[in-house]
Amino acid sequence: MSGEDLYDDSHIAFLEDLWGEGFLSPGGPEEVARVLDGVDLRGKYVLDIGCGSGAIAVLLVREHGAAHVTGIDVEDPVCAAARARVAAAGLSDRITVEKVVPGPFPFRDQSFDVVFSKDSIIHIPDKEALAAEAFRVLKPGGRFAASDWLRSHDGAPSAEMAHYIRLEALDFAMASPERYRAAMDGAGFRDVELVNRSPWYAGEAAAELQELSGPNRADWEARHDAAFIAHQIETWQAMVPVLRTGEHCPHHIRGRKPA
Ligand SMILES: C[S@@+](CC[C@H](N)C(=O)[O-])C[C@H]1O[C@@H](n2cnc3c(N)ncnc32)[C@H](O)[C@@H]1O
Question: Of 78, 90, 96, 171, whose CB neighbour count within 10 A is largest?
């Protein structure tokens, strides 16, 4: 493990404890299904950007019928966890996990039917380049379906939002729905659709904060480090208000490459 990994083994263990085995983002299989609303994966070749520890890649094959998923990520611990999960699921012939460097994807033009991503593009500052790369690697008629954590505007964050982003310490590069839409349109996508998920996640996050800080706190501290849990509680206490105001606004983003 590199000392610079943001999602190191202890962080992976905590997030999976909160969100489910192999999930480093909220919502589980139901939320993945909502991201894929109207996008049929059966028999399709799928790119999963920021695959994390791999439960979603497994889900895309097992539950959604993808022929093959290529999961890419930039950090060793998550790639190792994802590869182990894929092998344990007996799906090594249908899922490959590749460690990549940030920047252009190491794939030929028109390699995939669907580009998927769940809550990972937040780590990629250049949304325009990302949209152009997704468009390039999609086959004509291919679909883009992602979830990501956005913020309501591209100006200076409010003091509450800046405080929250500082606590996350995860290199967040949040952008507005308008910037995402312009990036998708500019890349050439059609039927671009953004769905605001902050009303849903505001409720979820409040329940997560209650789980971490309520009667179960001692159990969390026993399974993870007490100081680490205290920091997570502080982070969630900062996150819930900015979800409620809507400044922190997770969205689903979909688009279609013209046939
Ligand atoms: C919040 S996790 C989500 C992981 C997974 N999609 C899930 O929902 O469980 C974000 C992931 O994005 C990865 N990531 C960060 N920068 C990236 C980049 N430039 N390209 C691809 N993945 C990246 C991180 O290493 C991490 O695994």
Answer: 78
